[in-house]
Amino acid sequence: MGTRLSPWRFRSGLVTSSHAEFPPALSSIQDRLLAPGLPSMNLHDPKLWEITAAAIALASAAAISAWLIFRKRPTPDEIELARRLFLTQSGRIVDGTLLDLTEVPGPTGGILSMLLYEYRIGGVDYECSQDITLLGDVVSPAHISVGFPCSVRYQPGSPQNSIVVAERWSGIRASIPVLPAYDDPEPIDISHLNPGS
């Protein structure tokens, strides 16, 4: 057999014995770690990995539950704002009709301005309402004409999710478009097409 060298290298250079020995301080540490009756710190020990995995799982569960408890939940107004922005960016547009503008008592005791409208998609009629109380700077209830046509933005996979007014878009039309009157033009001279006349 060849000589077995220690993984420890001394600054003095060469090791003279056939079996390299640890320095005295390291030898006593090695004796204490490998003493009978004491558990060895081996990375191949399954119990060590189980304890480590359990500690990581417990820390992860604690972090997730702390985040769920202490996170800032969106208010109903923030959820409605996100819905309007989503429909403004990705909603399809269809023609509809304004049915009514009504005021109803809100859950907090205030008055809500509700815009009622209808539209048809794929042969199905939808009647929906939208709270426009917070959109007073975009649309004024005085400028809404009941019975007028409007444009409705809806979500393609869920057509009942729709809006008529948002922060950066409005489907309310100022007036009914007036089509130009059709003037009967002068008849075209086709006498050259009839050679006998």
Question: What do these coordinates show?
Answer:
The chain starts with 23 loop residues before the first helix and ends in a 34-residue tail after the last strand. Strands 3-2-1-4-5 form a 5-stranded antiparallel beta sheet. The chain has 197 residues and is of the alpha+beta class. The chain has helices at 24-33, 46-70, 76-90, and strands at residues 92-105, 111-121, 124-131, 149-155, 158-163. The radius of gyration is 40 Å and the shape is elongated. Among the domains are: 24-69, no CATH class; 76-163, OB fold (Dihydrolipoamide Acetyltransferase, E2P) (Beta Barrel). The model is unreliable at 5-19 (pLDDT under 50).
Produce a short descriptive summary.
With 197 residues, the protein is α+β, with helices and mostly antiparallel strands. Helices cover 25% and strands 23% of the residues.
